[in-house]
Amino acid sequence: MTTPTIDVHAHVLLPAVEALVAGLPGHAEARELDARRNGPAALAVNGPMVGERVPRLTDPAVRLAAMDAQGVDVQLVSPSPSHYHYWADEETARKVYRLANEATAAHCSAAPDRLRGLGLVPLQHPDLAVRALEHALEQGLLGVEVSSHAPGRELSDPAYEPLWSRAEETGALVFLHPFGCTLDERLDRWYLSNTVGQPTENAVALSHLIFSGTLDRHPGLKLIAAHGGGYLPTHIGRSDHAWSARSDAGAGCAHLPSSYLKRLYFDSLVHDPHVLRELIRVAGADRVLLGSDFPFDMGTEDPLGALRAARLSDADFDAVRGGNAATLLTEGLS
């Protein structure tokens, strides 16, 4: 039996979540911050871009037809990162994660053999995170999606230890997908907020998890980093050097930083076949998964074509195309 082609980076838009938060205290301020970080030119493009893609983001039948055209058998569907709403108070955050988890599960239920889902956790309220994860699993989702940080908290914050522990215990997937960059207005032109901001946020978040020893304490954590892990995999030698040369850099984790890349998973969405080959070299062909960022414009319309461009061996191609993800998605949750 041929291994299915599995795209682990695909999104769903949840209008009910946006209706829930509209007009609430803090929502306008969050939108203003997002606008400042992206700049007016980017916002002028984003609106029509998302609008044109709404059917693919909300209608399972349209999604499945697009998957067929791409040659994708299965998608791991996660909410649009715009639904994080890490500004929300506890009561609102509880409503957001429950609605997002339930709506994502409902979307995937239209084709359960082809659509698997991830939920959300409110990182701004660590005390709610474990319950949010458990709620996602109760809906039949495979795990949760998180950003690279929450206001005032990095992923290395001890407050998240219960979340990592529970994710490890249950076998839940954690999809690390940044939204927003704290470099703020420095990136407000030419869409630098995304092209530079996203890979920077990936690198910072993963470095926190590595250098803090979080991955030492949770070696079984199944974490998938979007965008190929950002800048970190191709510049991991600098991290290794710091760990070896400086006592402050090496104090928190037990092993060379590069060794932790082989404990993580990465999607293939790096937009450069040479970078993809390097990612596979440093992380291992068994740790890279096909990803498209469906259906946004910073993704790829032809994820298999992008994978073929890397000119991998047949075994590595098949592993990234779907073999690795098939194992990851079908492992039983305890």
How many β-strand stretches?
Answer: 11
The CATH H-level homologous superfamily: Metal-dependent hydrolases
What share of residues is helical?
40-55%
CATH architecture: Alpha-Beta Barrel
What fraction of the residues are assigned to beta strands by DSSP?
5-15%
Q: Structural class of the helices, strands and pairings? A: alpha/beta
What order do the helices and strands follow? EHHHHEHEEHEEEHEHHHEHHEHEHH
What structural keywords apply?
three-stranded parallel sheet, hydrolase activity, 12% strand, alpha/beta, globular, 11 strands, lyase, single chain, 49% helix, 334 residues, six-stranded parallel sheet, TIM Barrel, 15 helices
What does this molecule look like?
InterPro entries: ACMSD, Amidohydro-rel, Metal_Hydrolase. One of its GO terms (molecular function) is carboxy-lyase activity. This is Amidohydrolase. Keywords: Lyase. The mean pLDDT is 96. Helix 1 packs antiparallel against helix 5, helix 3 crosses helix 4 and helix 6 packs parallel to helix 7. The protein has one domain: TIM Barrel (Alpha-Beta Barrel), CATH 3.20.20. The longest helix has 19 residues. Helix 6 links the parallel strand 4 and strand 5. The protein is an alpha/beta fold and 334 residues long. The protein has 15 helices and 11 strands. 49% of the residues lie in helices and 12% in strands. The two termini are 27 Å apart.
